[in-house]
Write a structure and sequence with these properties.
This protein has about 425 residues and is of the alpha/beta class. The chain has 3 domains: about 1-200, NAD(P)-binding Rossmann-like Domain (Rossmann fold), CATH 3.40.50.720; about 210-295, N-(1-d-carboxylethyl)-l-norvaline Dehydrogenase, domain 2 (Orthogonal Bundle), CATH 1.10.1040; about 300-435, Rossmann fold. Helices cover about 45% and strands about 15% of the residues. It has helices spanning about 10-20, 35-40, 50-60, 70-75, 95-110, 125-140, 160-165, 180-190, 205-235, 240-245, 265-280, 285-300, 300-310, 335-345, 360-365, 400-405, 420-425; strands at about 1-5, 25-30, 65, 80, 115-120, 145-150, 170-175, 200, 320, 350-355, 370-375, 385-390, 410-415, 430-435. It has an 8-stranded mixed sheet with strand order 3-2-1-4-5-6-7-8, sandwiched between helices. A 6-stranded parallel sheet has the order 11-10-9-12-13-14. Helix 14 links the parallel strand 9 (about 320) and strand 10 (about 350-355). It starts with a strand and ends with a strand. The model has no long low-confidence stretch (mean pLDDT about 95).
Length: about 425
């Protein structure tokens, strides 16, 4: 089979590379000529463990190609995946301009039957809009060419995207025709040989499934953060509460870890988009609005804890931060709690020094002169009045406590991810302020 992926961002590049890995001929198309030129040389513009090696391997095997020419890439193509971005609009709704532009271009350039699959996260009804636009462009040309549309939402976790794609929990496909279903079954056969299920459904249900999944996970996070905050007030320990409820099979242990809020490219955007979609249809998503509000407040919680610890006197304080990306194993800082914290401490007159294993270049781009970036986690601690653990990278789990005490003005850790043992830190002479304890 031959497929084309339009959009060489996170989703498009991972999708195309993983399809190439199982022997499919893949062309990734993007309008960014500089990005494409780099990819042709094996230069991967995003951080995802193992992706650079896989891209290079499939380039050498001539199974993976990169181009800025969509028309040329459609020749002999069986399936085209639309994986362009859907950034949030001002009102929180998904911006569909790029998705719909691709649909028009496909209608203008296609010569033979093709299955057009939306991979981007889009509101319910988008595939129908894609179908209409392709048909309009074909009619303008007077071309009677058959095509199908389908929806195939992605469920990739940043930092584990390759494993998620190659060994999926499930593959969700919305389709209208038996022909489209047969093509998608063939395309995904290499990934289902070990029993990973394909779930076929109507297109609107597939589009909704993506939003519902992310909204549910975001809800669990905000719920647990609310419980954590109440635990602090009442004198309970949220980690014990988490274990107590997580042992219930109806609840389970995933996504009930308290912290300083969710970020990234999916949860914030998708929760806002679902709220917006409901509002456009005269329905109010009260629960999801609360999820959003709790998350926004939770991103500020370390700031308030530090402010309380220093009796509201933060001006001139030196703040060290470990971790800037929204989660480990990625350099993605979109909607990261670190961005909120840096803004708050900067406005309060603090001096901020930070370290992150992979997000330092991105941090320099998005945070500018609000922060000093250093190359080593312990370098960030020189003369620091406190340390904020913001992202739970593995290399932060077993810190050198004596070295930390030597370099810090005051031995205090604000543990935004509850990764440290309080008794151990206290015995080493540290103050330990965590979430829900």
């Amino acid at each position: 089979m031959k497929i084309t992926i339009v959009g060489s961002g996170y989703v498009g590049l991972v999708t195309g590379t993983c399809f190439a890995e199982v022997g499919i001929d893949v062309t990734c198309v993007d309008i960014d000529a500089e990005k494409i030129d780099g990819l042709k040389k094996g230069i991967v513009p995003i951080y995802e463990p193992g992706l650079d090696i896989m891209v290079q391997r499939n380039l050498e095997k001539a199974r993976l190609h990169f181009s800025t020419d969509l028309a040329a890439s459609l020749k002999g193509c069986d399936v085209i995946f639309n994986a362009v971005g859907t950034p949030p609009d001002e009102n929180g709704s998904a911006e569909l301009k790029y998705v719909l532009d691709v649909a028009r271009e496909v209608g203008r350039k296609m010569k033979d039957y093709i299955l057009v699959v939306t991979k981007s996260t889009v509101p319910v009804g988008t595939s129908e809009k894609v179908k209409v636009l392709i048909k309009e462009e074909l009619d303008k040309r007077g071309a009677n060419i058959e095509f199908d549309v389908a929806s195939n939402p992605e469920f990739l976790k940043e930092g584990a995207a390759i494993e998620d794609f190659l060994k999926p929990d499930r593959i969700v496909i919305g389709r209208e025709s038996a022909k489209a279903e047969k093509i998608m079954q063939k395309l995904y056969k290499p990934f289902t040989l070990n029993g990973h299920p394909i779930i076929f459904m109507d297109i609107p249900s597939a589009e909704m499934t993506k939003y519902a999944a992310n909204a549910m996970l975001a809800t669990r996070i905000s719920f647990m953060n609310e419980i954590a905050n109440l635990c602090e007030i009442l004198g309970a320990d949220v980690d014990k509460v988490r274990k107590g409820i997580g042992s219930d099979p109806r609840i389970g242990s995933k996504f009930i870890y308290p912290g300083i809020g969710y970020g990234g490219s999916c949860f914030p955007k998708d929760v806002k988009a679902l709220i917006s979609t409901a509002a456009e249809n005269d329905y109010q998503m009260n629960l999801l609005q609360a999820v959003e509000d709790v998350n926004a407040a939770q991103k500020k919680i370390l700031f308030h804890k530090v402010k309380k610890y220093f009796n509201n006197d933060l001006k001139g304080k030196k703040i060290a931060i470990w971790g800037l990306s929204f989660k480990p194993q990625t350099d993605d800082m979109r909607d990261a709690p670190s961005r909120v914290l840096v803004d708050l401490f900067s406005e309060a007159g603090c001096h901020i020094t930070a370290y992150d294993p992979v997000a330092m270049k991105e941090a320099e781009r998005v945070l500018g002169d609000k922060i000093k970036i250093v190359e080593d986690q312990y370098e960030a601690l020189y003369d620091a009045d406190c340390l904020l653990l913001v992202t739970e990278w593995k290399e932060f789990r077993m810190p050198r406590l004596e070295l930390m005490k030597e370099r810090m003005n005051r031995a205090v850790i604000f543990d935004g991810r509850n990764i440290y043992d309080r008794a151990e830190l206290i015995s080493a002479g540290f103050d330990h302020i965590a979430i829900g304890k």
